[in-house]
């Protein structure tokens, strides 16, 4: 999906699509990731997955992420905030 | 951003050398879990690395240069420039290029100097050599590193990645119009200096008991301030930001389309990053050169290593349009559009550890 914004096209996805993408990245059962989940409770969330997350956001949303904020992210909701302009619904 | 096209160049040959010793990814399971090792290999594409606890970069570059000079039949006194690109010199001083000048028996009418660059170093070295050469002169570019000797054995972010290698490249400026063009594009963003760094052991933070102390750091990795630190997330974000425009600008310099390039030979950082970059730049997978499975990331030697291990049969017989790009530590980046081949490209040279530990000769 995409929406027009100031002459540019912004690729967007829903919260559910975003959560499923992270499920895949950490090779977890669909539904593992949802709002409120803390990254510290996900053993699979390691430095390799962080790089995979950057790649996935670049590939799927064309989004450039602040690495400083990504490193500070504590929860799935914090991850959503990193690409909030691309998440709708 | 410096962009330049230099003509009249003849790249005669490239040779590479690695330690004979092999470090297999399977051995990493001793330090890290089997599961972690499998994930790392899947992502990096690195099954084994060539490492030595004794050999210096200069030893590997020396072996490569000896082979190349002999195969080309270049008289030693015909080399007018010797450039050594490395982050792992023999000594604090003098320049390793001077020591290599002596070991190779080059003549006195020869400039020799070191350049401290890594991932971007090979392309920087080509640009420097091409810029310095006057018609009739010859340059020997020696680029390599022994980064395996700088990593902590308890750091998952660096240990599984880096291997050791040295390279030699022979370049000449033609007196006639028969040479070829090389187009270069270079850049720097020093704000990234801290993301790939060995913080101590230089003059800013001299070696001390404290800097040699290994402690547990981010992600559970343990290392000292004299070990290599690499922030993988920052490295990846940097490459996504800078490499696609770098490649585009360089292709524009020579007005090549992606389709007209025979092979894209990038700094061999890791497979995941290279494949993602290629996809982002719409480079077809059959044009993307990946050559790190059996040697790892060899820093400034990674591009000549990829030429040697992946493109040798073609480069010995054909003329190929290549887009070379190095990017990383610094942040520093450089790309070159070159037509290469047929060139002298010996098989990978394997160097055995010397029987006794070499020590620093003192006067």
List keywords for this structure.
heterodimer; A: 89 residues; mainly alpha; 4 helices; 2 strands; B: 363 residues; alpha/beta; two-stranded antiparallel ribbon; 16 strands; 26% helix
Explain the overall architecture.
The complex is a heterodimer of chains A (89) and B (363). Chain A is mostly helical and 89 residues long. Chain A starts with a strand and ends in a 7-residue tail after the last helix. Chain A has four helices and two strands; from the N terminus they run E-E-H-H-H-H. A two-stranded antiparallel ribbon of chain A has the order 1-2. The longest helix of chain A has 15 residues, at 47-61. Chain B contains eight helices and 16 strands. In chain B, a hairpin with a 3-residue loop joins strand 14 and strand 15. The mean pLDDT of chain B is 96. The interface between A and B is medium-sized, with 15 and 19 residues.
> Main beta sheet of chain A, described?
2 strands, antiparallel
Regarding quaternary structure, what we see is: heterodimer
Helicity range of chain B: 25-40%
**Alpha plus pi helix count of chain B:** 8
Strand segment count of chain A: 2
Strand content of chain B: 25-35%
What is the 3D form of chain B? Answer: globular
The biggest sheet of chain B amounts to:
10 strands, mixed
Beta-strand percent range of chain A? 5-15%
Any idea what the radius of gyration of chain A is?
A: 13 Å
How confident overall, as mean pLDDT of chain B?
96
Q: What is the helix fraction of residues of chain A, given as a range?
A: 40-55%
Shape of chain A: globular
List low-confidence stretches of chain B: none
**How widely separated are the two ends of chain B?**
45 Å
Strand-pairing-aware structural class of chain A: mainly alpha
| Lateral strand order in the biggest sheet of chain A | 1-2
Low-confidence stretches of chain A: none
Taking all Cα atoms into account, the compactness measure Rg of chain B is 20 Å
């Amino acid at each position: 999906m995409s929406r027009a914004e100031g002459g540019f096209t912004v690729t967007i996805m829903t919260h559910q699509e975003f959560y499923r993408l992270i499920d895949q990245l950490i090779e977890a059962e669909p539904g593992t990731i949802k709002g409120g989940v803390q990254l510290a409770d996900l053993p699979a969330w390691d430095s390799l997955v962080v790089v995979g997350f950057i790649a996935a956001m670049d590939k799927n949303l064309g989004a450039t992420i602040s690495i400083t904020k990504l490193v500070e992210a504590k929860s799935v909701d914090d991850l959503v905030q990193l690409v909030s302009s691309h998440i709708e619904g | 951003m410096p962009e330049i096209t230099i003509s009249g160049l003849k790249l005669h040959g490239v040779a590479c050398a690695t330690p004979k010793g092999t470090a297999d990814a399977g051995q990493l399971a001793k330090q890290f879990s089997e599961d972690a090792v499998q994930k790392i290999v899947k992502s990096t594409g690195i099954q084994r690395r060539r490492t030595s606890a004794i050999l210096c970069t200069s030893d590997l570059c020396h072996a490569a240069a000896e082979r190349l000079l002999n195969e080309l039949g270049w008289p030693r006194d015909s080399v007018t420039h010797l450039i050594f690109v490395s982050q792992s010199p023999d000594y604090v001083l003098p320049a390793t290029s001077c020591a290599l000048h002596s070991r190779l028996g080059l003549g006195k009418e020869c400039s020799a100097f070191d350049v401290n660059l890594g991932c971007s170093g090979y392309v920087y070295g080509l640009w420097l050599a091409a810029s310095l050469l006057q018609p009739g002169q010859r340059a020997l570019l020696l680029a390599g590193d022994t980064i395996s000797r700088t990593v902590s054995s308890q750091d998952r972010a660096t240990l599984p990645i880096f291997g050791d290698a040295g390279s030699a490249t022979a370049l000449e400026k033609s007196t006639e119009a028969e040479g070829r063009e090389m187009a270069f594009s270079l850049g720097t963003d020093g704000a990234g200096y801290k993301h790939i760094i060995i913080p101590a052991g230089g003059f800013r933070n001299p070696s001390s008991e404290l800097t040699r102390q290994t402690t547990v750091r981010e992600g559970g990795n343990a290392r000292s301030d004299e070990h290599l630190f690499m922030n993988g997330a920052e490295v990846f974000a940097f490459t996504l930001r800078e490499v696609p425009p770098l490649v585009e600008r360089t292709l524009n310099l020579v007005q090549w389309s992606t389709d007209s390039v025979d092979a894209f030979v990038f700094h061999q950082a890791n497979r995941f990053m290279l494949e993602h970059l290629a996809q982002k730049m719409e480079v077809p997978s059959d044009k993307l050169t990946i050559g790190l499975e059996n040697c790892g990331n060899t820093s400034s030697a990674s591009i000549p290593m990829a030429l040697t291990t992946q493109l040798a049969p073609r480069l010995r017989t054909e003329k190929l349009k290549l887009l070379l790009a190095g990017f990383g530590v610094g942040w520093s980046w450089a790309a070159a559009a070159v037509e290469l081949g047929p060139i002298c490209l010996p098989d990978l040279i394997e160097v055995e550890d010397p029987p006794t530990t070499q020590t620093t000769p003192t006067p």
